[in-house]
Design goal:
The chain has about 675 residues and is an alpha+beta fold. About 40% of the residues lie in helices and about 20% in strands. The strands form six sheets. The chain has a six-stranded mixed sheet with strand order 4-5-7-9-11-10, with helices on one face. A five-stranded mixed sheet has the order 3-2-1-12-13. The protein has a four-stranded antiparallel sheet with strand order 14-15-19-18, with no helix packed on it. The C terminus is likely disordered.
Length: about 675
Amino acid sequence: MRNRDRKLKAVLKMARLGLCAIILIVLMTVAAWLSALLLDYFMVPTPYQGPPHPRSMQAPFPGETADNLWWFIHISDIHISRFRDPSRTADFKTFCNEYIDIINPEVVLVTGDLTDAKTYDNIGSTQFEIEWQTYQNAIKHAHVPEKTVWIDVRGNHDAFDIPHLKHETNYYRKYSVQGELGDSTFMYQHKTSFGTYSFISVYALLDPGPKRPFNFFGTMPEEELDRLDSYVSKAAQGPNNHTVFFGHYPTSTIITSHQRLSRSLQSGITYLCGHLHSLGGSVRHMEALQKTGSLELEIEDWKKNRMYRIMAFDHDLLSFVDVHFNEWPAILITNPKRARFMVPRHEPLKKMAHSTHIRVLVFSPDPIKSVTISIDDAVIGVAKHVEGPLHVLPWKPDAYSEGLHSIKVTAEDARGRRSTNKEHFSLDESRPQQWFVQALILMIDITRAFQLWNFLLVGFLLGTITICRTQIRKPAAGFYRSIVIRGLIRLSHTDLFFYSFVVMLLYPFIGPWCIGHLLTNHIGISTAYGMYVHGTFVTETFTFCVTIIEAYVIFFPLLLFCAVQLSPPPSHVSNGTVTRSNRTAKQQHDTRHLVWVLLCIPGMVLGFLWQAFTMYTLYSTYSWLSVIVSPKFLWTYMWSYYLAFRSWRLGSGTISNLQPSTRS
């Protein structure tokens, strides 16, 4: 009988292992399929199925003269500050005084965050007139508006703590070059002897502009989208070689109808933006070809990285290079252009195959000594200087008509400074895959992604404790080996903890977060979906980032700590008698319990530090009122401490004192 039971148990065990193996294989297969699908979506650009560009086969073609060529500069996130990094301002003044003369761009686009607008503690925010005066003086003293077309727009830092556009603290209108024109979507048309190029701003600033931190995402209401569409139509009506869109926010960080916005932006060759600062330098070169067939190019910030971008239209082929401040010579290859950023929907790409010369722009404060060009690691010659920064070298494009090829340009100036630029090109529209992380950041709707992340996270946690409460009977807790599972079962059947965690999970999405001075001298209400202040509801969903962070640094450690403290001993440990096996089991249980408590401590400490930082941030940004009247923050935090204390008190009596057994 016993042998039969053992065999039956062995068979059941093997069946369970087989089932687990099958489930694991299925999950791994599905995960691999989804990963491949995801990588393919973001890394493989959508092939262009439309007709060839109408000017692809029309002369002139790129040759040895400087015709059909002009260039401009894109710079973003300057963050002139009265409190931090004086070299940031000094370098910007050098850029205005010297670099504009060296590069001689016809247009300079400055896409927001002209000033820092952050207080001395780097947490609070408001507008400082001295920062705006410094910005204006740097431009005026260098006589920049007399040398080039300077187009500057606001970023979210330039909108901190501004009740409305005409308020006296909106110093952008007083000290920027664009002034009042830049406080909405506008268009500038740059006319050359060979065509017109339209620059259209994408205005997504919050109005009113609340203080940080809940002023990160942009928003475009219907009226702003209508204004954008009107300029798109205007550009399409007249002769227009190219349309370039520009703004502060990447499209993935704009709360709007993305279908409408994408439809408008697909009429342009590229959208230029800043704002993300290459995520602190961790994700550089945020550049991607959108599914609509247009480029989106985010540039690294001037604030810390001191980056700027030189862009050129050469026979209507768009090329660019990102340059670090004080690095010379700066090299921009305009023909053949870089394969990764070909835009067949908007560019006459066949002109490259009919070109007679490789064309390179080389910029330096000193005369250029030599420009050496290699293709596929073979030196093909030294380019000759034509005029300005243009250097050319004859080539035979037929030799490179198929597949990807590499081109390397090495330049040396009279001071002996050398730099190299190496790129891939193709003449049959072959292209490398896109960078996955960069494309992911630019191509998804980040605001919706954070909302989905919250939904899945909250759903998982609610589902876990609800299943433990409704599907598993309370006495079953003692039969599970895992301390955490036993604790979750007991926690879910204890009304105080179950309903507290349910409310703590759901409240951020249904109730007000805090009441405070969201604007100076203006009290408002903050919610997960935006803020009501100065008689206006401002949509802003950076709050969903906060709820995700707090789920990991506060909620998970707290739930784990409470579950461990409430975990009852296994049923065979507390059966009222002491045997050697029970005593050993008790010791094992106590040891595991201690280990789990020690594992919980770092998480609880991290949660406490985050809570302290959050409360200080509320005080520094929205005043003491927001600290006191904050159901999402102070009240919830205090209740979490109470739950931790109660679980510790209740957990102290979970292990029954084992009485010695009596021998007969």
